[in-house]
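queue> pop job 88
queue> type: inverse folding (structure -> sequence)
queue> payload:
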């Protein structure tokens, strides 16, 4: 029995969305059908060797469909070497081993891979499983093919033991960082292995399926290879969740009119676009198993139109928006379903307009609108981009000697950075799965105009390590969109972040940072520092301290005069004092209010307390500054906690010739400390210079005038 026949997943898929019984306007890439054809061409009859050219002929035909001028001679040479080197080897299904590299190559050919990738795919197991050496591959096919073959070659279990699998993936990802075609070959290799997994023991099937789910499927998603990702999802679904899979299969098989429901809406859409003179192709795309399962969990009972989506293909970007306008004009749009991935493409190269419209009978159809080029990239992702190193510009060495790769996305660069710091295979393997589980990405802006790409849910801690590396150990805090924010702040797409670093490079992260770190780079760096400084992890959190008050000389403030209408002749002038909430100083614009006891409290114009008093019906009193320049003011200094901070601030204040009347230090919160100073200035004109001097103290990030009632002084 062949592996295909033995695999229950294969039988289940035959009844799925791509089965012949489900009508569609244009067939999707049917990798399974073409794969079977190649296998039959390679193995049928006793004269199998004479039939082998027919097998590579399937690859050549698929390749020429995308690349009409491709040179097939190198593919035939690679096939001859692969067939001769694998001769006598058999897969566990009993088939000649050559059927595997043929099927892998055919998968990539159907996706539009260029000749170099297909050559490497034919040879991808030769160095690992035969007597062929990497040097031989390099001599006969060149450096690029040798690099791709080496990239997907597994490390020996004899040398690495249990670490062989994670270290193989590490090696493969590093190779992918220099050439994304390495991962394309690996994904096609895993897809064919998953198709023929039925010959394995159930426990081994489950182990391979879990690795596929946790690592390969997220990588396929990030590289945009949807044609591989969707089939891998269905195969994993069938192995790891057989009951849900069977329920979904029965649901699809029990709804034979689903395609007709969408076909009717497709006819209406085609008519609307013809009347608008928009050249478009309207197709019905049935959902794959996992997609149907997700929709059922989301919506409950499904209607016929829920089993698929409409795909509208046009020539130009502008036509996409023209189609969208016609659909929203002639049908009832479901506004919540609209997404524009053309103006804002996904981080995996995906571009499309998503919308949903309701037909007159109430059926709701999801619609994807894209150009033919967008559709090719949506199906094949980086594979559709061809050779990223062909042509004079992409192939030229960069300033650091590395080739420029236009397909290397930010998530891959981050992954390559943090994997260098992963101290052991277990840490790398765990961190890789956690990183790939983050399936959305945000972009935040730095104050210097640069950008940082981070996974959704990332915090200021993650941004600090993404921007500064190990220098982020001394990070004290951040400003997000201009406002001070703790390091635990979760960032959102489009935020502007400024990381504040201490000048003292000996400071380091606290264990609490691990609670806020989402990226492996941050977690590995923090963990490494804490392990190197065990005393830092053992220091208990400081207990809240009572406010500390320091009282100095209490001289009177600047003279203030109040004009009280209707006061008795010869009466003593009222007591006039500056308000503690806003501590006005010359030359602030001021206003006064009579308070209990007949005294006049003076506020800065615009003070919230003054507005409150007006709201209570209090009449303002005209007040003037006197001739004396001396004044008293309350300042609030916000800083990050560090040793000698209070002493340095007091020294900076004294250096400006200012006396400290009172000082209050609040208990630290999230490494932040708030100091409130009541100060006696010999001249109000020196206030700006004093505030600048206080801001220049290391660790101080803001100094402001008090805006709330000050703590009463004794």
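queue> result:
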């Amino acid at each position: 029995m062949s592996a295909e026949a033995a695999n229950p997943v294969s039988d289940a898929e035959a009844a799925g969305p791509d089965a012949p019984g489900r009508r569609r306007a244009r067939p999707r890439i049917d990798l399974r059908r073409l794969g079977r054809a190649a296998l039959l061409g390679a193995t049928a009859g006793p004269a199998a060797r004479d039939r082998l050219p027919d097998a590579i002929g399937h690859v050549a035909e698929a390749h020429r469909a995308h690349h009409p001028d491709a040179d097939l001679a190198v593919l035939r040479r690679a096939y001859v070497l692969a067939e001769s080197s694998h001769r006598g080897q058999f897969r566990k299904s009993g088939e000649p081993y050559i059927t595997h590299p043929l099927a892998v190559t055919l998968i990539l050919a159907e996706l539009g891979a260029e000749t170099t990738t297909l050559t490497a795919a034919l040879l991808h197991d030769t160095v690992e499983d035969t007597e062929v050496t990497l040097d031989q591959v390099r001599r006969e096919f060149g450096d690029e093919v040798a690099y791709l073959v080496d990239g997907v070659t597994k490390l020996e279990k004899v040398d690495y033991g249990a670490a062989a699998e994670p270290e193989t993936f590490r090696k493969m990802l590093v190779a992918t960082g220099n050439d994304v075609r390495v991962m394309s070959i690996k994904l096609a290799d895993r897809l064919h292995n998953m198709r023929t997994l039925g010959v394995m023991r159930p426990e081994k099937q489950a182990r391979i399926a879990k690795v596929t789910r946790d690592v390969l499927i997220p990588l396929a998603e990030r590289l945009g290879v949807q044609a591989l990702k969707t089939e891998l999802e269905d195969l994993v679904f069938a192995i790891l969740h057989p009951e849900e899979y069977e329920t979904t299969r029965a649901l699809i098989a029990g709804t034979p009119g689903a395609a007709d429901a969408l076909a009717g809406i497709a006819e209406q859409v085609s008519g609307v676009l013809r009347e608008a003179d928009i050249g478009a192709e309207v197709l019905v795309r049935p959902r794959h198993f996992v997609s149907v399962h997700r929709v059922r969990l989301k919506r409950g009972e499904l209607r016929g139109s829920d089993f698929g989506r409409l795909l509208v293909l046009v020539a130009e970007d502008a036509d996409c928006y023209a189609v969208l306008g016609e659909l929203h004009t002639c049908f009832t749009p479901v506004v919540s379903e609209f997404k524009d991935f053309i103006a804002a493409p996904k981080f995996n190269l995906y571009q499309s307009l998503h919308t949903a419209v309701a037909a007159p009978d109430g059926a709701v159809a999801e619609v994807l609108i894209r150009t033919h080029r967008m559709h090719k990239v949506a199906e094949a992702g980086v594979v559709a981009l061809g050779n990223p190193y062909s042509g004079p510009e992409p192939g030229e060495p960069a300033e650091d000697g590395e080739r420029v790769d236009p397909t290397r996305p930010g998530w891959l660069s981050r992954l390559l950075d943090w994997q260098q710091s992963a101290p052991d295979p277990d840490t790398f393997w765990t961190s890789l799965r956690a990183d790939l589980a983050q399936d959305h990405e945000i972009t935040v802006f730095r104050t210097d105009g640069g950008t940082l790409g981070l996974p959704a849910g990332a915090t200021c801690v993650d941004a600090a390590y993404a921007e500064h590396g190990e220098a982020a150990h001394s990070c004290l805090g951040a400003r997000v969109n201009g406002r001070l924010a703790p390091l635990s702040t979760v960032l959102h797409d489009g935020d502007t972040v400024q990381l504040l670093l201490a000048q003292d490079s000996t400071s380091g992260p606290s264990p609490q940072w691990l609670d806020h770190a989402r990226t492996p780079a941050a977690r590995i760096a923090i963990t490494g520092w804490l392990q190197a400084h065990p005393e830092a992890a053992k220091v208990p959190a400081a207990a809240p301290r009572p406010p500390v008050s320091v009282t100095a000389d209490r001289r009177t403030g600047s003279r203030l005069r109040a004009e009280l209408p209707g006061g008795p002749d010869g009466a003593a002038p009222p007591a006039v004092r500056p308000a503690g909430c806003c501590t006005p100083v010359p030359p602030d614009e001021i206003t006064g209010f009579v308070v209990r006891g007949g005294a006049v409290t003076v506020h800065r114009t615009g003070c919230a307390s003054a507005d409150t008093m007006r709201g209570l019906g209090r009449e303002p009193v005209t007040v003037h500054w006197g001739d004396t320049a001396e004044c008293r003011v309350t300042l609030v200094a916000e800083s990050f906690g560090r040793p000698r901070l209070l002493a340095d601030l007091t020294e900076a204040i004294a250096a400006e010739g200012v006396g400290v009347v009172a000082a209050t230090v609040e208990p630290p919160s999230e490494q932040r400390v708030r100091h409130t100073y009541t100060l006696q200035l010999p001249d109000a004109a020196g206030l700006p210079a004093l505030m600048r001097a206080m801001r220049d103290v290391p660790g101080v990030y803001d100094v402001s005038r008090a805006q709330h009632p000050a703590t009463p002084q004794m």
